[in-house]
Amino acid sequence: MKKLLLWINAFLLSIICGAALFFLVAIQPNWRSGNVEDIIIMNSFFHVTDASIFFKGSLAPSLLVSLICMVAYRKGDRALRNLVVITFVINAAMFAFTLLYFVPKNNYLFVQHKTGLVRDYVSSWMTAQYFRIAFYLLGLLFAARSIHQSYLVQPVSK
Fold first, then answer.
1. 20 lies in a domain?
2. pLDDT tens digits, one per residue of 63-121
3. Angle made by CA atoms 119, 102, 39, in degrees to the nearest 5
4. Domain containing 28: what range?
5. 12 and 58 Cβ atoms separated by less than 8 Å
6. pTM, whole model, 2 decimals?
7. Dihedral sign (CA 137, 143, 145, 148)
């Protein structure tokens, strides 16, 4: 049962990472220029343009599963415990980063349509997105490594 939690944790992180990569490749080019007109055109094309709806809804379960994994593996192999703790810390940091940095910028860019700081916000948003994807990949790496370590610690018996 405990190994299943590690698999679910890695699965949720892979969904989040895949969504961030999809957003980078498929959605961001529509408003990368920083023109308010491009953002309005994108908003009229997509029914729901605020990606924070997906990320807020998917980061919370991922963080919860990561916390449960950390509690489940608090006693046991030290290397596995460290990997699970690192995964949780990365997950918690990305949750906070998304809620504190991206959500306010998304509200400004996609909901309010103000023209004052759009180019600056788009530029900083793009740069931060690359860091966010890198940290999601790092979290996914540690989640996969913790799965691997769990099979080394407790080999499957016949």
1. yes
2. 999 999 999 999 888 999 999 999 999 999 999 998 898 888 877 777 666 667 777 78
3. 40
4. 2-153
5. yes
6. 0.82
7. negative
